[in-house]
Structures are given as C-alpha cells and as structure tokens.
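Hi F.,

I've been meaning to write this up properly since the lab meeting, where we talked about keeping a consistent format for the predictions we share between groups. The idea is simple: the sequence comes first, exactly as it goes in, then the structure tokens exactly as they come out, then a line or two of notes. No screenshots and no reformatting. I'm using this chain as the first example so we have something concrete to point to.
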Amino acid sequence: MKQWWQRFKYKLAGWMQGRYGNDELTYALFITALVLIVLSYIPFLFPLSFIALLLLVWSSYRGFSKNIPKRRRELERYQKIIGKPKSFLKLQKNKWRDRKTHCYFKCTNCRAVLRVPKGKGEIIVTCPKCANRIEKKT
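Output, unedited:
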C-alpha cells in the first residue's frame, strides 16, 4: 500500500507541474464556499448551495490552471481589495493586545500610526516615515 501511495504522489506531482496551484484567493474562495454550504442548511437559504458550488468550481479551476500570469493578476486584484480592511483589523488586534502597555496615535504630517509606551510622561516621538517630531503625553 505504501508503494502505491508513493507512486500516486509522484504521478500527481508530475501532473501538477506547470499548473498554478493554491494561493490566498483560492483558499478564500474555498472557505467562503464552505461557509455558504453550512448556511444553506438554514431553511429558505438553499440557493446558497449553488453559489457555493460555483465558488468551489472556480477555486478548483484556479488551482489547476496553466495560465499563471492571469491567475497572478487575479490575486493582485484580490489583495488590493482586501488589503485595507485586513491591515485595519490587524491594527485593531495589536491595539487590543497592547492596550495596557502602549498608546497608538497618528503622525500629524504623514498619518502613519505610531506606537509609544504608556506612563512615560511628555515624550518627543520622531516619525520613522517622514522624520516629523511630535511631542506627546503618554
């Protein structure tokens, strides 16, 4: 059985050579499809299962595609759309994690988010992006 499995993995790897494979967008499509499948069990939400099926087909098509430049452009568009909400949520998570030890504020010049330790009194902070000096009380 072990030899059969090894041969199968070798043949599968040879077949996948030159294909795009999985990326962040493929995983997002797959997870969204799974969520829609679960939601489709709620009464009157059965049409969501068709949408989930389309998403599963699309994610499989992306993974097995040989048109790599087109798949990369799709991924770049996805990352451009999802980038700002993702960075906002990451900042909120970091603010919550550091709420007892650090203060967060924005630079008055370039609007970059800066983090300073709490309880230091009046301090002068230099923005690493624009070198603007800001006096802040922590």
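Notes:
The first strand starts at residue 102 and ends at 106.
The chain has two domains: 18-97, 100-138.

If this format works for you, I'll send the rest the same way.

G.
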